[in-house]
């Protein structure tokens, strides 16, 4: 189990720092640091660093195999994140859906796409034992 003294770190490309800050702040992430070539966010308690790298943007992103996001352990928090994304008019890559319906690993999920075509998944498992 994760201890509170550890923070996951993820570095991803971005094409424009201003639009990146706008997207992630609308998502509810706190801007921690900004430099000429990158921005760092508190992404739901973890660290996401968006490096200015306009030549490394995936022009045709696909959900699999590359995306990242948050798995909520509380359904209300998942629903709040979904409501917030809708209210902020964040771009959805896929609409909210239920995956693996009727199976133990059934979960609610939606994908957003950031300005650099990075895909973000937000999900909630009905059976918390399926989180890992």
From TrEMBL:
InterPro entries: Glyas_Bleomycin-R_OHBP_Dase, Glyas_Fos-R_dOase_dom, VOC_core. Residues 6-125 form the VOC domain. It comes from Sediminibacillus halophilus. This is VOC domain-containing protein. It holds the Pfam family Glyoxalase.
